[in-house]
Amino acid sequence: MEKPYLLCLDDETDNLDALERIFRRSYNVLKASTPEEAFNILDNQPDLAVIISDQRMPLITGVEFLEKSIVSHPDSVRILLTGYTDIESVIGAVNKGQIYRYLTKPWDPVDLLNTVDQGYEKYNLKNELKEKNKALEKALDDLRSLDKAKNQFMILINHELKTPLTTILSFTSLMKETLLSDEQKLFTDRIMRSSEKLKSIIDDVLLIVKGEVGLIPTRKDVINVESLLKDMPADISKLLNSKTQTLRMKSELETIELDPQLSKTAFFRALHNATKFGVANSEISVRVYQNVPYRIIIAIENKGPQISAQTIEKIMKPFQLDENIMNHSIGMGLGLTICHTLMKIQNGELKVTNHDGGVLVELLFR
To answer: Which CATH class is domain 221-365?
Structure first.
């Protein structure tokens, strides 16, 4: 292993010879008796681990030389040698020259050697840290590239899946208009239901991926709070009726400013979740209000089973495939994930907590 390089600057040659004797076993010692010689070494030797300079010299002080050396050798460790009479003036200049340590003359050879060894260790650690940071930056860039490629791939694949799926749905619809046997009707109904389910999953995945990569534009508009319940999806109405659930809405605001389409989509997803997992013959409550630091809060609460913190963490993640979540195995568990994505797009957030024998889902708009 090649020995590290050490530069010693002192206008007294006897001191340079003494320094060389101390360090020659462990270091490649480069000696300079004038600042000119020292600067020449700096120009020709980029890998200097440690620089030692005397403070009192005719043309330049040690602090001034060490300060100038920062430009070409920022990572080198600098050590200053000084007499007692210079200490007060040197202390004020230590930071200016980025000096690791200063030692007084006459020096203790053991202390000087230990100081240089410690300085070299610091130099090595600094270089190792720089290399690791470079590796981390490269790894981060690679991850960003992979993530971008993954998202582009998912968007492409999901778009491509829609083409054959549209064909399947179209021809299945045409088949249902023809004269079919009972068995054929059963088969075509199953094809239609499965295709519609697949289309719904593709749409959900596309929505999440586009939201994560910032491909969904937003716009704000003032809407009446009561309009939130207009155009309610049929599946929510069907669930409310089949479970004999009552939907109650209370608002402290008449109008709210938000993105109508994205906000209503998030609201209906949260409402569907509350209805689906709420107990029968119970009330689903919706409350709209303000509370600092949020401009608008839409809170949906149901009565039903409590959710563990672990489950809340899982269902907030995209593409959840854990069939034990909420004791069901239907779908991909993307409902609340889509809420979370749509709220992030609008600089808001989704909060899910257990509350009074049920679950509280809050859409928080900043």
So the answer is: alpha beta
* Domain 141-212, second-level architecture: Orthogonal Bundle (1.10)
Residue at token pair 């000084």: 82
Specify the DSSP element, H or E, that contains 32: strand 28-32
Q: Is 366 helix (H, G, I), strand (E, B) or coil?
A: coil
Q: Which CATH superfamily is domain 5-107 in?
A: Response regulator (3.40.50.2300)
Q: Where are the domains of the chain?
A: 5-107, 141-212, 221-365
Q: How far is CA 137 from the centre of its chain?
A: 14
Helix (H) or strand (E) holding 225: none
Mean pLDDT value across residues 333-340: 79
- Is the separation of the CB atoms in 365 and 258 below 8 Å? yes
Tokens found for residue 309: 């913190």
Angle between helices 35-44 and 62-72 in degrees, nearest 10 = 20
Taking the C-alpha atoms of residue 353 and residue 334, their distance in angstroms, rounded to an integer, is 18
Q: Which band of pLDDT confidence, cut at 50, 70 and 90, is reported for residue 201?
A: confident
Contact (CB, 8 A) for 308 and 319: no
